[in-house]
Amino acid sequence: MNKKLAIIFIAISTLTTACVTPSVKEYTGPDGRSVKTVKCSKSPEKCFITASSSCSGGTYQVVTSESHAGGLIADILPGPVTWYGMTYICGPSDGKMPYFAFKGREFTLPDPPPEPIQVE
After folding, report:
1. pLDDT range class, residue 3, cuts 50, 70, 90
2. What span, in angstroms and rounded, lies between the C-alpha atoms of 91 and 57?
3. Contact of 83 with 70, CB cutoff 8 Å
4. Which residue, 112, 87, 89, is CA-closest to 98?
5. pLDDT tens digits, residue range 48-103?
6. Where are the domains of the chain?
7. 3-class SS at 66?
8. Which of 27, 40, 79, 93 is deepest in the core (most CB within 10 A)?
9. Cα(72)–Cα(64) distance, integer angstroms
10. Closest to 86 in 3D by CA, of 120, 30, 42, 35
11. How many angstroms separate the CA atoms of 88 and 108, rounded?
12. pLDDT attached to residue 17
């Protein structure tokens, strides 16, 4: 029964994360330039596509990147979905690719409840 619950949980998380689109946040960096951050789930490819389309010339320089375990629709708590984050500046690239080092806690399924005790 525990395997069935795990399979159902993974199936639901896979289906619901397919609907999540990457989000871009923009802020001013210490040097006055505009810095952008993108978060996406399941694949870093979505981050590359989003970063390229958010920059008018299509090129950008990666400042930092990371990945971590997240939930189905958001990355608030560790969950079965890998979330990728990348901070970048639009403009000429230095050619360095992001590493997406894993940070934070890993997701583990909770222990199954104990078997009920049969009293005769």
Report:
1. low
2. 7
3. yes
4. 87
5. 999 999 999 899 999 999 999 888 777 777 788 889 999 999 999 999 999 999 98
6. 2-90
7. strand
8. 40
9. 24
10. 35
11. 31
12. 44
